[in-house]
Design brief:
Length: about 350
């Protein structure tokens, strides 16, 4: 593998939570690199990295420690990355999530589809559903605001969406190339699913009132009458959805809990996951999720690898719309964090001063 002399040429940080998510990202690299010759890892940084090139961009991939999930672990991984690589401009959080599918409301999210956290209104694409306060009448008020994705990525997203109105996504070509170059990823082994579409017969969306029978590892005993009615798709190609991603520290495997979260965060929510909220205020990034389950009791691991692959392929396509010149002129992620910290300290100082003035008036 090639080893670049200078670590400063790596300007994009890619964070995955799971080893299978990191595997999909690594398999989609156009070139894989050895550790840069001048790289000195910060003493506080415990991350391990994969280096490489996607298109015209050099990226560095990090994943959470094995077996550790949630917003805190994600924030720690991002902070460690920036401590060792302060030249990083933008970030991508790419992996799997639970879909909130409502076919009757034209939100027909299916397994293997991709969800992108896009800003809408006052919400910057990701909302932390377990950070808020209860109010009277079972209402819920959000407290705190997560940062917006970098402008250079939002501009790229706008260009990509326009091109998808004209032609097929390039991510489909990227997936085919990945499978051809890595035949092992196409084959299931010892009941471990491959990084390919798992078949429409294994994509079943059940009504909220029908829980998965206890003790059953598959849904073979789940009655067809329990399923939501959906139109058949004529292709296995994943569809792309743009909307709100709800993030929290709870792994949701219950339809009732999922639906309650939806009532709290609003109808625009189309995905649940566990890490993004820990990143948005620590690491300027865009969140991309492949749908591997419906956040209900029927949840299993069959679709996780394929969903990891579709999310990574979309992220790779998105980077083709990020000009190198625009990326170089983008403020460094660590400088953005310093600016946010300074603004926070200034706000706290004003608050303290105002409090003292009020006390003096009294």
């Amino acid at each position: 593998m090639e080893s670049l002399e200078n670590a400063d040429v790596y300007t994009i940080g890619w964070i995955a939570a799971l080893p299978i998510e990191r595997a999909a990202a690594t398999a989609l690299l156009d070139d894989r690199h050895s550790v840069p010759q001048d790289f000195e890892q910060n003493s506080s940084d415990s991350n391990s990295y994969t280096w490489g090139r996607m298109g015209v961009h050099n990226i560095v991939i990090a994943s959470l420690p094995d077996g550790q999930y949630g917003t805190t672990s994600a924030a720690t991984t991002a902070s460690n990355l920036l401590a060792s690589l302060p030249q990083i401009r933008i970030g991508l959080m790419v992996g799997i999530g639970g879909g909130i599918s409502r076919p009757a409301q034209e939100r027909d999210v299916r397994l293997g589809d991709v969800v992108v956290g896009r800003p809408s209104g006052t919400i910057e694409g990701v909302l932390q559903y377990d950070l808020g306060k209860a109010k009277s009448g079972q209402a819920w008020e959000r407290t705190g605001q997560l940062s917006s994705p970098p402008q250079v990525l939002l501009n790229a997203l706008s260009s990509l969406r326009a091109e998808h109105e004209i032609g097929d996504p390039k991510m489909l070509e990227f997936l085919k190339t990945m499978w051809e170059a890595n035949p092992k990823m196409r084959k299931s082994k010892n009941k471990v699913p491959a990084f390919i579409h798992q078949g429409f017969e294994h994509d079943r969306l059940f009504k909220s009132g029908h829980a998965h029978p206890l003790g059953n590892k598959t849904c073979e005993a789940c009655e067809a009458a329990w399923e939501e009615e959906r139109d058949e798709r004529d292709t296995t190609d994943p569809e792309i959805h743009y909307g709100l991603i709800a993030s929290g520290n709870t792994l949701v495997k219950d339809a009732d809990i999922r639906d309650k979260i939806l009532q709290v965060v609003g109808e625009d929510c189309i995905c649940l996951e566990m890490e993004a909220a820990g990143l948005m205020n620590h690491f300027p990034c865009l969140v991309i999720r492949g749908i591997c389950d419906y956040a209900d009791s029927h949840k299993n691991d069959r679709w996780q690898r394929y969903a990891s692959a579709t999310a990574a392929a979309f992220a790779k396509e998105l980077l083709t719309y990020v000009p190198v010149k625009n990326l170089k002129s983008t403020q460094k992620a660590i400088d953005i964090l310093r600016s946010v910290s300074e603004d926070l300290r200034a706000t706290q100082a004003v608050t303290i001063s105002t409090k003292e003035d009020v006390e003096n008036i009294r």
